[in-house]
Automatic annotation (TrEMBL):
It comes from Rhizobium mesoamericanum STM3625. GO terms for molecular function: iron ion binding; oxidoreductase activity. GO terms for biological process: lipid biosynthetic process. Residues 178-307 form the Fatty acid hydroxylase domain. The keyword Transmembrane applies. The chain crosses the membrane at residues 42-61, 73-95, 137-157, 163-183. It comes from the Bacteria. It holds the Pfam family FA_hydroxylase. It is found in: Membrane. GO terms for cellular component: membrane. This is Fatty acid hydroxylase. The lineage of its organism: Bacteria, Pseudomonadati, Pseudomonadota, Alphaproteobacteria, Hyphomicrobiales.
Amino acid sequence: MDDLKYGTRDKRGNYSPNQPAGTAPVFIWPPKPLEFLKWIPSYFLPYNALFFLSALAWWHWVIPPVETMQHLAWGWVLKLFAVNAVAVFFWYFAFEVQLYVRRTQGNRFKYNGKFPSETPSDVFWFKSQNLDNMLRAFLSGVPIWTGAQVIVLSAFANGYAPWLTFAANPVYLGLLCLVVPVIHEFHFFCVHRLIHTPFLYKWVHSVHHNSINPSPWSSLSMHPVEHLLYFAATFYHLIIPSNPIIAMYQLHYAGFGAVPGHVGFDKVELTENTAVDSHAYIHYLHHKYFEVNYGDGLIPIDKWLGTFHDGSKQADEQMKARYLAKKARANAQRAAKTPAK
Ligand SMILES: [Zn+2]
Ligand SMILES: [Zn+2]
């Protein structure tokens, strides 16, 4: 496909789509009913439906009977860990192998003109972004993901969390399924904004931001503290009346759902003439500029707080003005604290 019909490429080979990054037409005023109706299919397909189905599959084929989960034992916990690790490997690798190993679409629609393997850096373990990101995903990402899963399943199995059944509460639980991405967005925004405060950024979140040019393996490349905060989204289902399948959907939404935002391409080509939007631009801009787009745009919190960047020159100017104002405030505070001679 000719990506230049949909965007432009600068001298360094970086691609920018013509269509600015946008937020979902949901939590907006005045409402835009027509845009909302057009947006609905993209809310379900393909990812949200896929992650719900994967949660169902786990429930039926991977997660042990309730009686087993009433007692902690290495057997079922390690089985969960192994299945999660294999699933992460294949899901992440599916994107990685097509776009970054075989490079089936070259750098068409690729935001950053370079591939991570072309730029070894000391910030990464073994100077390799791919190896570093992969090791972090498996050494702390999957274990902490599994830990959160074990805590939630044990709590349900032992009656510590309010467990509603789909048979008795189909409407409420159906609505709760629809809200899972909203819970994720709210939780992700809050913890993400928190770890962008200076101390936590330096010691925790900078690990994730080492990948300025993110690729699929960057999705779970985080400090263990960030993994803990990130997967804690599933704990909402221990407080609100819910069901373990929906709690697993919340977990899969976080664990598997991190990939599309880090895919690094604006569109993924399926055939010579067809491609699907990745919706990765918002989070790509976050990796590029750091202090914009803390959320993924389902709830337009960044717009409300003035930190949204849609990739346009105008947004660039606003970001620079914010940065200068912040610097001026910091200088004024420093000057106020310095005793006069
Ligand atoms: Zn990221
Ligand atoms: Zn960040």
